[in-house]
Write a structure and sequence with these properties.
The protein is an alpha/beta fold and 364 residues long. Helix content is 45%, strand content 9%. The chain has a 5-stranded parallel β-sheet, sandwiched between helices. It has a two-stranded antiparallel ribbon with strand order 4-5.
């Protein structure tokens, strides 16, 4: 982890100082946000969280290589893409608390972000369902003559789902501009990659479907940036799919519902955390005198305060009433009769068992 370039390496897309610093500060802020949000969940302030620790380079590096209006169909560990595109810390916190400022009105579980303005489709919990959606959206781009692409993120575990096969096959046979970005982080929750597949990872599947594929060091933000930028060029110019497999490591637990010490050793985790992608990129910046210890301390301190302020701000915002649970399903004024009946049953049950309600949700 020296920060030095690989000798004789060909780098098609060099980073200038402005872009490099934006990428680094986004990664450092993301790391700080993940740490504090994880701790807040552990304090019982909201019900669930998961981090992208160890995978910051994959999400931020790929986001920097995309156009801002390329539609993203994420899995759930890609908050770095949203942060890069301008999603604020306050918006993240509002979603986690499910308050009145959150567009989903608290009906999604935490970390299920979405933003129409930032071309980021709302997260869906079931694995790989986003992949065929991305292919369908790419087909629409093709039919409309657009020069954009769609992008879908998934883990190596999700690649075992049937939806992944359907997505790869449709993308190839329809020849659509869709970029598949696999975050191969070593574990599908507790299942290690060697128990997930016997073949040559995920990139090796590309040629079988007729999809160009590349494997990249997911801990090297410049490598990810270059790979995804070229993947986008190929997808647009050739109107065809491209598969990128980013080899990384999930440094944290799968989520706040997981204890990864039960299925991997402390030595393994220590060895990978020593290859922290954020620290690797910082070394590269430091060698060029683009970043200093003083800047690091100032940025981390400011980011921490901004995250704390966002948490406090979100916690003080009221939550939507329970009746919002059944709205936004049908268009037109009023609720259909069956939803009216269901709402009355919900309200009666809540009045009888208030202890089952999430804190702060009005029964009305």
């Amino acid at each position: 982890m020296t920060g030095k370039d690989v000798e004789n390496a060909t780098v098609l897309h060099q980073l200038d100082k402005e872009l490099a610093l934006k990428m680094y500060t986004t990664m450092a802020t993301l790391q700080t946000m993940d740490t504090l949000f994880y701790e807040a969940q552990r304090q019982g302030r909201f019900s669930f969280y998961l981090t992208c620790q160890g995978e910051e380079a994959t999400t931020v590096g790929s986001a920097a290589a995309l156009a801002s209006d390329d539609m993203v169909f994420a899995q759930y560990r890609e908050q770095g893409v949203l942060l890069w595109r301008g999603y604020t810390l306050q918006q993240f916190a509002n979603q986690l608390f499910g308050n009145c400022h959150e567009p989903g009105k608290g009906r999604q579980m935490p970390i299920h972000y979405g933003s129409k303005e930032l071309a980021y489709q709302t997260i869906s919990s079931p694995l790989a369902t986003q992949m065929p959606h991305a292919v369908g959206a790419a087909y629409a781009l093709k039919l409309s003559g657009s020069k954009g692409v769609t992008v879908t993120y998934f883990g190596e575990g999700a690649a075992s789902e049937g939806d992944a096969h359907a997505a790869f096959n449709f993308a190839a046979t329809l020849s659509v501009p869709c970029i598949f970005i696999c975050r191969n982080n070593g574990y599908a929750i507790s299942t290690p990659a060697y128990e997930q597949y016997k073949g040559d990872g995920i990139a090796g599947r590309g040629p079988m479907y007729g999809i160009s594929a590349i494997r990249v060091d997911g801990g090297d933000v410049r490598a990810v940036y270059n790979a995804v930028r070229e993947a986008r060029r190929i997808a647009v110019e050739g109107c065809r799919p491209v598969l990128v497999e980013a080899m990384s490591y999930r440094s944290g637990h799968h989520s706040t519902s997981d204890d990864s010490s039960r299925y991997r050793t402390a030595d393994e985790m220590r060895s990978w955390r020593a290859r922290d992608p954020v620290a690797r990129f910082r070394q590269w910046l430091t060698l060029r005198s683009w970043w200093s210890d003083a800047q690091e301390q100032a940025h981390r301190k400011a980011a921490r305060q901004q995250v704390v302020d966002a948490l406090e701000g979100a916690a003080g915002v009221p939550k939507h009433p329970l009746s919002e649970l059944v709205t936004d399903v049908y268009s037109g004024p009023g609720l259909p009769w069956h939803l009216q009946e269901q709402l009355q049953e919900i309200l009666a049950a809540a009045a009888k068992h208030p202890e089952l309600l999430p804190p702060g949700v009005p029964v009305q």
